[in-house]
From TrEMBL:
Pfam families found in the cross-reference section: DUF2391
InterPro entries hit by this protein: CHP02587_IM, DUF2391
Presence of the UniProt keyword Nucleotide-binding in the record: no
Keyword Membrane attributed: yes
Stretches that traverse the bilayer: 15-37, 49-66, 86-105, 162-181, 193-217, 237-256, 268-288
Source species of the chain: Rhizobium laguerreae
Highest taxon of source: Bacteria
Classification lineage: Bacteria, Pseudomonadati, Pseudomonadota, Alphaproteobacteria, Hyphomicrobiales
Name the record gives this protein: Integral membrane protein (TIGR02587 family)
Length: 289
């Protein structure tokens, strides 16, 4: 793709429209976490190495998402990194403004506390900013030709590799996990549940997840061929998706100190509990993304 073509394809009006949608997406998708006390407190005491790791992990995630659903169609990784940086910036700005407006951030707080609260909230907010492009984008811009808009829209359905499908499932799992992983209820439920409850929760997660996968058939990518048995989708998508949801859940719980000072049984139960919403997010990734 030539540089001239790339410059010609850049539409400033559509780009800034995407910015506005990104701000709206950051507020819409991250607002529950802005108003969660556990997220504020984590900004005070969260281990900075874990927070730094979360911030680093978020960067390639945003870059890959940008290549798929960025503010405007990207042709190079440099452009994808640009959009990812913008999404991160929107997330940080949105966090700061909302937390100040709600009286959570105050001028007499230490820099350590302020940066901690903004940094931890910026991760879901930046993902929300990127998702805002796909979820809040209109079908057509005013005055655009329908066929031209359809071909230029980065959210338009496209073929995705199997690895790409697994990545989208990981993003969906992470996005829903971030909403509930910081809460105390994850640990509380792990103490209330018996092994039988855990098995029922795993079975329910797999059943709901397979229902999503089989019903949606990942439209736009790896559609199941007519006559394909249900177990094929279960083995190819549901089981790997649940494993991914479990790994994402374990990482989120460890990041937010929910696995500290509790037994291995409670850790496993907490992962099972969190894997339920994570599995739904992974299975519904096509709807979310």
């Amino acid at each position: 793709m030539s540089a001239a073509t790339t410059r010609q394809d850049f539409n400033s009006s559509r780009f800034f429209s995407g910015i506005a949608r990104g701000i709206a997406g950051a507020l819409l998708f991250a607002l529950p976490m802005f108003m969660t006390m556990e997220m504020w407190e984590l900004g005070f005491y969260m281990d900075r190495s874990r927070l730094f790791l979360l911030l680093i992990v978020n960067i390639p995630l945003l870059v890959i998402l940008s290549d798929r659903i960025g503010f405007e169609r990207t042709w190079t990784w440099r452009q994808a990194m640009r959009d990812a940086s913008i999404a991160y910036g929107l997330g940080i700005l949105g966090c700061a403004l909302i937390l100040i407006a709600m009286g959570v951030l105050k001028h007499d707080q230490s820099l350590h506390e302020i940066t901690g609260m903004i940094a931890i909230q910026a991760v879901p907010a930046s993902i929300g900013a990127m998702l805002g492009r796909s979820q809040l984008g209109g079908q057509l811009d005013d005055g655009d030709d329908p066929e031209e808009n359809d071909s230029d829209d980065p959210v338009h359905e496209r073929e995705t590799s199997y690895a790409g499908e697994l990545f989208l499932m990981a993003v969906g799992a992470l996005f829903l996990s971030l909403n509930v992983a910081p809460t105390e209820e994850m640990v509380l439920l792990s103490y209330k549940m018996t092994p039988w409850h855990g098995l029922i929760m795993i079975a329910a997660s797999l059943a709901v997840m397979h229902g999503f996968v089989y019903a949606l058939s990942f439209k736009g990518s790896h559609d199941l061929a007519e006559g394909t048995p249900g177990w094929h989708a279960f083995v190819r998508f549901t089981l790997p998706g649940y494993v991914i949801a479990g790994l994402i859940s374990a990482y989120c719980l460890w990041t937010f100190h929910r696995t500290d000072d509790i037994g291995s049984t409670q850790i496993l139960m907490a992962v099972v509990v969190l894997s339920f919403p994570a599995a739904i997010g992974a299975a519904a990734a096509r709807l979310i993304l």
